[in-house]
Amino acid sequence: MDSDLFSELSDLEVLDLSDNEIGAIPEDAFKKNSKLKTLNLKNNPIWRLDCSITQLLNGMTSINVSFENVIGFDLTCATPIEWAMNEEEIIFKNANNQNELRYPKMKFKNLRTLSIWRNRLHNSLEIVDMLGESIEDLNLNGNILGKIDETTFHGFNNLHSLYLSETNLSFAAESNPFEHLNKLTHLDISHNNLTSLNVSLLSKTLSNLEIFLAAGNRFDNSLGIIQSLGSNLLLLHFSQNIIGALNLSTFERFIDMSWLNLSDTHLEHFDVNPLKVSTLDISRNKLKRLNVNLLSDTLNRLHEFCAAGNYFENTAEIIQHLGSNLNELDISGNYMGTLNETTFEQTQNIQRLWLRRTNLSISDVKPFETLAIVLKYLDISNNNLTQLNFSTSLVFENLKVIYLRENHLTQLDGLFKHSYPKLTELDITNNQLNCTTYLSMVRTEWESLNIIGNPCGDEDRTQSTTIAPKTSVPPSSSIVSYAVPIGVSALNIIIIVAVVVFLRRKKSSKSSGQMEVSNHSNGNGEELQPEPQQEVESNPEDHIYEEIEEPECPYDHLEFGVRPMPISTENQHYQNFTLVNLDRGTRPQNNGENRRFLDGRREMLPIYNESTQD
Q1: What is the DSSP string of 97-130?
Q2: Helices (H), 119-198
Q3: How far from chain centre, in Å, is Cα 370?
Q4: Pick from 25, 23, 134, 27: which is nearest to 68 by CA?
Q5: Of 191, 218, 306, 559, which has the fewest CB atoms closer than 10 Å, so is most exposed?
């Protein structure tokens, strides 16, 4: 079934597709049918109910489905969901409009995959009780479980993926709830405020895991937990726990581990034997140095490296030991200082680069020219830059996003479309750009450019320039200057300033994306220049981070879920895959690949695959 089959029927209200051979429906099949009230899918060999169908519960659609072949059920898109049951059916209702889907109890036991992600259901364990031994992937993230024991998942002999993040989870005393889950390889118990795990009881379970997500628990026996994990481990997310000191051999036996997150774990050092990981996050640990000689092989292998929010004294040396495999680097919140043309010579394949709050000392883009072919995302915000010349003899042919917020830039010299042909988003929040000069650049160079922190206001918007910020944190005030006639008294100036600020703020409340306004002119009609910034000392411990929220890596917040994906509806082959979501709200798309969302944008990379067959 094609995803655009009904896209032209915008007024469609009733659709009868019964008695066909439909096994699965594309997720956006009814995206343009907002008036759809009745969907009849009876007597079709549908084997999965995922977002393509369940998201219709958010509208006013009545759904009629045959459940004989269904083995996968995903209610993630239909939040918030309530449920009830009678003798024969489980009734799932959208809490906003009471639209419902009735599921036969006897068929519910046949499910292989179930996701009720983020519904905050208080009776989730009752749903678990109605599942049968065929269940393989169970996602209860974001619901209320509470205390579990060895009976909770008893009989789930085929379960290999279990997601229990943010479920108010606790373990009954002297109990291993996973004791009989011999096939369990993926376990998520993150963000449950657990303070310890009984390693002796859970040792068998932990030793079989390939993916272990335990972030946000503040374990006090972290090293014991890590040492109980087996050599099959591929991915470990252990951020926001207390580790402290590591041993050289802590990760030595994880010979196939490719992904390791130890951010915010109170690391005292990171002196460990070489790792084979491709993704490493050691951010927010206030480490002063990395032993680059010991870690040379580890650094050279990395594809993604986040070390934001430390106090590295040898940042430049660390970058020199990174290799050509690297495509993402976040070194924000560490001291960098001066960059030159050789800084990124060893890492010419970096696609996304974060250098926020690094005391950068640059006046042009020459240090980034070695990345001109591949660089897609550049963030050099919060660096007190007063000038930055974008003129270059090269073409940054893939650069789409530039973040310059919280600097003191007055011009955007050299930012021309022929040098940056794919630029789609520019953040200039809280700089000191002259409105006239800025608008001239926009008119001349770009027909469509998303400008975050536009100092000119919505009424001066030209062509299709977008003003409203897309970031989750609203930008601070932008600066616009007003000339005051000579001879006006100081009191009148104060009154004028107050009126201007009031009117601008009042207007901004009616139009999102408008920036607050401050007066920066004197009584002689001359524009006041900003006071020069005091030169920041080169001591990494004394510079700009203590009073500012520490940076977070763009891939620091992970949410994993499992959903079925068809390979062949004819033979009901399917593939289980892990979704990694980093943009705090955007749902991953079910389009046949594992996807990771970076910083709210749909720049996606494959993470992990495991295929099975019926």
Answers
A1: T--EEEEEHHHHTT-SEEE-TT---TTHHHHHHT
A2: 124-129
A3: 27
A4: 23
A5: 218
The answer to whether the beta carbons of residues 385 and 409 sit under 8 Å apart is: yes
What stretch of H or E contains 508? helix 490-510
What pLDDT is attached to residue 553?
Answer: 64
Query: Which residue is associated with the tokens 């160079």?
Result: 445
What are the φ/ψ torsions at residue 172 (nearest 5 degrees)? -60, 145
- 3-class SS at 526? coil
**What was the pLDDT predicted at 62?**
79
Rounded to 5 degrees, φ, ψ at 338 are -80, 135
pLDDT at 534: 43
CA distance 168 to 148: 10
Torsion, Cα 570 576 578 584, to 10 degrees, reads 50
The letter for the amino acid at 521 is S
Please name which of 52, 56, 45 lies closest in space to residue 22, comparing C-alpha atoms.
45
Minimal CA–CA distance to 548: which of 308, 265, 239? 308
Q: Which two tokens stand for residue 280?
A: 């490493």
**Alpha helices (H) in 302-456, listed in sequence order:** 315-321, 435-445
**Neighbouring-strand partners of residue 148:** 171
**Residues 183, 185, 189, 195, CA torsion sign:** positive
| Contact between 154 and 131 (Cβ < 8 Å) | no
The pLDDT assigned to 63 comes to 85
Q: Which pLDDT score is estimated for 173?
A: 85
Q: Which pLDDT belongs to residue 540?
A: 39
Q: How much is the CA Rg of the chain, to the nearest whole Å?
A: 28
Per-residue pLDDT, 348: 95
Q: What is the DSSP string of 188-227?
A: E--SS------HHHHHHHHHT-SEEE--SS--S-HHHHHH
Distances 491 to 95, 417, 486, 498 between C-alpha atoms, Å: 57, 46, 14, 11
Report the alpha-carbon distance of residue 60 to residue 170 in Å, rounded: 38
Provide the token pair at 22: 């439909």
Instruction: Kindly give the parts of the chain with pLDDT less than 70.
Output: 60, 437, 439, 441, 443, 457-614
Q: Which of 113, 53, 143, 132 is nearest to 579 (CA)?
A: 113
Q: For CA atoms 166, 170, 171, 172, give the dihedral sign.
A: negative
**Which residues are 49's β-sheet partners?**
73
